[in-house]
Specification:
The protein is mainly alpha-helical. About 65% of the residues lie in helices and about 0% in strands. It contains eight helices and no strands.
């Protein structure tokens, strides 16, 4: 293995390790949760952390990993020594955002909002995002009861 290839593996492993540490510290995500939210298997992530790969990681997986953690893929690409820009998997124009969601996002980046409040916002959003969807008939019955 060339010195350059080894340095790239170490740089990318460091990037992935830091991303995982950040996800654990700020979001309390386990390795399984990171895998679920990024769509990259735990085995692949573990190989990246160990630098145990014969050929470069697939760009699509690197992008999925970064997007799932809210990171800029170009940072990962730089660690890999790639002279590419990230191709985001989003449409050309983002959908309009609900004003309440915008307000929550502003609070999450506001330095005057306490960490406890930010944690509460994240936990509430996480609960709402992943709770089971009610069947359509049950939703209508609930509306009629109001």
């Amino acid at each position: 293995m060339t010195e350059t290839a080894n340095a790239r593996k170490i740089a990318f492993a460091t990037f992935v390790r830091r991303a995982l540490d950040e996800a654990r510290a700020t979001r309390a995500w386990s390795g399984t949760e990171v895998s679920r939210r990024t769509g990259v298997s735990r085995q692949t992530i573990n190989r990246w952390v160990r630098g145990d790969w014969a050929s470069d990681p697939e760009a699509e997986r690197v992008v999925a990993f970064c997007e799932g953690l809210g990171l800029d893929p170009t940072v990962a690409f730089a660690a890999l020594g790639w002279e590419r820009t990230a191709t985001r998997r989003t449409s050309t124009s983002p959908p309009p955002m609900d004003p309440d969601v915008e307000a929550l996002l502003r609070r999450l980046v506001d330095p005057d909002v306490s960490d406890a409040e930010k944690f509460h916002i994240r936990e509430t959003i996480r609960y709402l995002a992943y709770r089971p969807t009610l069947p359509l008939g049950a939703q209508k019955r609930g509306d009629a009861a109001s």
